[in-house]
Structure formats: C-alpha cells, structure tokens
Write a structure and sequence with these properties.
alpha+beta; Aminopeptidase; 4-stranded antiparallel β-sheet; about 500 residues; disordered C terminus
Amino acid sequence: MTSAKSARRPHHWRRDLIELAALFTAVAVADAVANLIGHQPDGPYLLVASAVALVATAAFHTWWARRHSHAPPPGSDTDTGAGTQAETAPAGADEELEAVLWRMRTTVQDTPGALAALCTALARRRIDILTLQTHPLAEGTVDEFLLRAPGALPAQQLTREIASAGGTSTWIERADAHDLVDTPTRVLGLATRTALDAAELPLALRQLLGRCTIHSLPAQTVTGRSTGESAPVEGVLEDTVMRLRDPSGGVISVERPYLPFTPTEFARARALVELDARLGPRVPRSEDVLTLPEGNDITVRRADRSDLGAAVAMHDRCSERTLGLRYHGPVRDADRYLDHLLSPRFGRTLAVQTASGRLVALGHLLWDGDETEVALVVEDDWQRRGIGSQLLERLVGLAVEAGCESVYAVTQAHNTGMVAAMRALSLPLDYQIEEGTLVITARLTPARDRSAAESAHRSAAEQADRPTTGPSGQASRPLPGPGPAGRPFRH
C-alpha cells in the first residue's frame, strides 16, 4: 500500500517557472480582454454574463465527474489515506498485532443462544475463532476452539471471560501452527500412517487425542500366563480413560488426566483401531545397505515377528555376558522376550543382517508411556565395528520422526559400548545411576517453555480446587532397578 506522502510527486524549479509564466500570460490575456470589452457600451454586462457562464460550466463539470467517476470511494482499502493512517498509528498497536494461538475446550448448555453468548464474549476481547468443533453430550455440548488472541491477554483472564459467558469445565492450553490443520485432514493423515505401518497406531492415537498416555497391555506374560487384561470389542469409555481391544491381543489403554474423553473422541479412536485390525500385521520393507570399515556389507531393515527364528538363533550365538548386558536378568529367559519386542505394537525394531542373510544385531525403539526407550544387542563376533552406533543413530531418527522429545537407555555402568554409542549422538545427555544400573537420557529437542502449555485452567470456580498440571505434565521417571528385559513391559 502506497501512502499519500510517498505518492506525492517531487517539484522541480522548471515546473515552477512554467506555472509562473502561465499565470502572467493568463493575467495579460484577461486584462486585454477586459480593456477591449469594458470600453464598449455593453461591456460590463458581457463581463458579468461571461462570469455566470463560467461558474455554471464549472458546477456542471463537477457534478458530471462525481456521477461518472471510476475512482474508488473515499475510505476504501485502496485509498491513499489508509497508508497515512497506518503511518500515524500509535506505537502500542504493534503489541496488539502480536497474537498467540490457544486451544480451548469448554462445556456450554445445549440451548439457543448459548454459543452466541460465548462468541460475543470472545469478540469483546478481540479474539478470533479459527476453528470450532462440537462434541455433543447427553447434557450440554463440549465446544473445542482454536483461538487467536492478543498476546497481552493472560490465560486466566480468558478463562474468566468464558466462565462469565456460561462456559463450564473450561480447559485451555497453548497451540501452535500444526493445529491449524482441520480435523478431517488430520484424521485422514493419521489413518494413512497407520495403514502403512502397524507400529504407528499408538503414535496416531496420541496425535488424534492430544497429549495423553498410551499403554499397550499384553494378554499374556512372557511365561505364557494370562495377565487378565481384556476389553470388549466395542471398547470401554470411563471419563478420562478409554480401553480398546488390541488387534494383536491385549488392551490399548489411553489416559488423559483431568480432561474427560468425549463420545466423539472415543468413536474416532475406535475407528482407527478397527482400521488397524482389518489390515492385519504389516511393516514397511525398506532396507539400507552399509559397508563396514573392513569392507563387509550389511543390511539394516525393519524387523517383526517373522524374524523370531533368526533372532533366537542370534541369541544362541551370543555369550552370556552380551545377553546379560542387554536383558539385565537370567540369560535363559532372554528368548522369551523376543516375541514381545518384535511386535510392532510396542515400538519399532531394526535388524542387521549380513550378505548371507544371518541376523547379527537388533535395535529396539520401545514406546514406554510418555517416554521412549532404546535398546541394542549385537552378536559378539560383530561387536566393535560400528554396528551399534549405526543402529542407535537410526533409532533416534525414528524417535524424532515420531515426535519424541527424548529417549533413554537402561544399561549397566560397566557397559562402555552403550555409553560410547550414546555419547556419539552429540545430544545433551542426563545420567542416573543406582546399584549398578545406569539410565542415560538423550534430549532430542530443546525443552519447551511449558509455563502456558502445561497450565490446565478449569473455570474460575474450579481453579482453586483442581491441580493445574497440563495433560503433558508428569513427574520425573523413577530410576528402575535391575530387572528382566530392561523394563520392556512398561508400554
């Protein structure tokens, strides 16, 4: 937009000189005409008549120009005055232009005008509604908004405004640009990811339902005993917990503290699990061929339960020390964990095989609730060749793609190989050690400012009685003691 100041043409001395000459010429011509006509008998009358004719002609020309002009009306967006107004705006206007995104959920009465009152309250605070979803309930309706609000407006004030407009059980948290994707598009994308890879189901559920905790509970233990975990085909919805039948057996438990699931969310999650069940086991068959320093070629690929026999054979070739460093328990029980670890439901597994097809290493990326564990086992004859580092680097890449903020490895203090592989990642590391068990945590992304994102704001009347920890808030992980399989069942 061009302002009036910048649109004004510069004046030059030549133009001023020409205008002055034209003025003197006009005066001279007017004086000559006045002298010529004024000395005649009817001269004064002719001068008055000429003046009246000139005034009438000017008035007609002005009226005609206004009626048939093609110029935009004054005050339109293309008017140059808009630029002048922008230039003279006060300095505090920039602060109002800075806006933040909020995701808000509140319950309103299912009566005419209830939603209009809520929108009016938002408009008074200059809050823009970007998206709106409705979740019908037996009594009332849960409305979920994506809002663009002035940066100076605190979350507490926004919550009070909603409460005064009739909203109850209000939940608000910071959002980002990824939330601008509309719900149907996001659901179709999650369904596509789930269709391509069975290991994506827990991640898809987490992205579908927001920050929540996903637990995959197996139907049987590694010893074959029943765990008693089961759920009906249609699933179970209990306030902040939903339980869905796992297509591979067992139960998928989804928990979200302080924010109850709606029937709409439960139906979406159940549809995603049903899609996974209909498609059956599936793992992408991508392969990477690497050349070791001594010249041998190895292949890194995804593994699943079809590799169980080759994995057991690799265990047979490993020493007790190697199996003990990986599974932290009796080595005779190591084979029992493989069926669980190779299941795509509990994470992703990478296998390393030689040119002859022999399996020589396994790397596991295990979903552990809100956290992610990495674990490696390399056959003795293939250790100290960089295979572990290659596996760990790819597992961390998979964790980054899945949106994980950190990964941790449970090992023993004297396992120098695992410690060196973690340090080679060039990531910030945290160490915890107790009774010979070492937990190394690598931070994949910088810690976010959770002061707003973790604030769970109930309505003004409920804030004093309810905790303010957001759905992503969690206590620090307790240090696990030595145990079989290095905590493979906390998923």
